[in-house]
Specification:
Blueprint lengths: L7 H16 L3 H29 L2 H7 L7 H11 L5 E2 H8 L3 H11 L6 E6 L10 E6 L3
Antiparallel strand pairs: 1-3, 2-3
Bound molecules: zinc ion.
């Protein structure tokens, strides 16, 4: 049976039965079974990764593809999410996340491409940094 037709649960059961089988054999046959076990484990990993991505919001899924944790896109994304409902201008996002202003500007502009999740427009910054309206980014309640 092709592995990609199995459910995650079936794959996990298969992994266990292959492991049990492997414990009882040696030599060339064991090598073949080991390869099979690797294939099953790869497929389990792929399934688990894709189910995590399916639960993520679209903007978050995009950021999950970023190379490492704690990078500027993730910092800004999670900062805004933690302050959901609050409009924050780029200056204040830069100050509070430690990311430089030009990068904040680019990333906030990218988040604005997901209007179901983020609003970006001239508003009063929730940080009271200015009495004037500035371009602010605000995470929406999803
Ligand atoms: Zn501000």
């Amino acid at each position: 049976m092709a592995l990609d037709t199995l459910t995650l649960k079936e794959l996990q059961q298969k992994r266990q039965s292959v492991k049990n089988h492997l414990a009882n054999i040696k030599g060339p046959e064991a090598e073949v079974v080991k390869t099979e076990l690797d294939d099953v484990e790869d497929m389990i990993r792929i399934r688990q990764d894709s189910s995590r991505l399916q639960r993520a919001t679209p903007a978050e899924a995009l950021l999950r593809t970023a190379p490492e944790n704690g990078n500027p896109p993730e910092k800004i994304y999670f900062f805004l999410k933690q302050n959901t409902g609050q409009a924050v201008c780029d200056d204040c996002v830069a100050r509070e996340t430690g990311v430089d202003l030009a990068t904040v500007n680019t990333i906030a502009g990218t988040l604005a491409l997901f209007p179901a999740e983020f609003r970006r427009m001239a508003m009063r910054c929730s940080r009271d940094c200015s009495h004037l309206e500035k371009v602010c980014t605000q995470a929406r309640q999803v």
